[in-house]
């Protein structure tokens, strides 16, 4: 899906970090509960137990995608991936390839220590910005194909 849009594997890992914020309906990850036994991508049991209890109230319940810093766009997402505290299979699968796992570890801040600071979080913000800008150019409609609205909710007056 990412490659078809001109995005590479590194950009896919970077953009997955957007799961650091937001909420998801329990119906979005039923295949993750209960966690599969003996799976390297299974959800961390404590989180799975909490979600099983919360989500049993109904699939319309919404839960934070990042329980640690749910309202902050940060690199906590990558720490969650490493500890298997993630909701989606797409997030858990980032540890199944050495290339993507290396990026997850880097963005989590577990590598590249320099002058008393971990570079991973700093680099992630920069890479995320670049990938978002690149994604913003995918499938852009021109005035001949659509309309750039002055106010998103309303069609421009002619």
From TrEMBL:
Disulfide bonds join 26-55. One of its GO terms (biological process) is response to oxidative stress. Residues 1-156 form the Plant heme peroxidase family profile domain. It catalyses: 2 a phenolic donor + H2O2 = 2 a phenolic radical donor + 2 H2O. Keywords: Calcium, Disulfide bond, Glycoprotein, Heme, Hydrogen peroxide, Iron, Metal-binding, Oxidoreductase, Peroxidase. It is an enzyme of class 1 (oxidoreductase). Its EC number is 1.11.1.7. Its cofactor is heme b; Ca(2+). Heme b binds at residue 19. Belongs to the peroxidase family. Ascorbate peroxidase subfamily. This is peroxidase.
């Amino acid at each position: 899906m990412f490659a078809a849009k001109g995005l590479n594997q590194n950009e896919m890992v970077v953009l997955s970090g957007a799961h650091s914020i937001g909420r998801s309906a329990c119906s979005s990850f039923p295949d993750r509960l209960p966690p599969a036994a003996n799976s390297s991508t299974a959800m961390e049991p404590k989180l799975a137990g909490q979600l099983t209890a919360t989500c049993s109230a109904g699939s319309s319940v919404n839960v934070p995608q990042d329980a640690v810093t749910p309202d902050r766009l940060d690199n906590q997402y990558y720490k969650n991936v490493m500890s298997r505290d993630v909701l989606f299979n797409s997030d858990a699968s980032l540890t199944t390839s050495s290339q993507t796992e290396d990026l997850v570890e880097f963005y989590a801040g577990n590598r590249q220590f320099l002058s008393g600071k971990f570079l991973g979080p700093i680099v992630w913000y920069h890479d995320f910005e670049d990938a978002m800008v690149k994604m913003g150019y995918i499938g852009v409609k021109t005035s001949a194909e659509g309309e750039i609205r002055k106010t998103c909710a309303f069609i421009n007056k002619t």
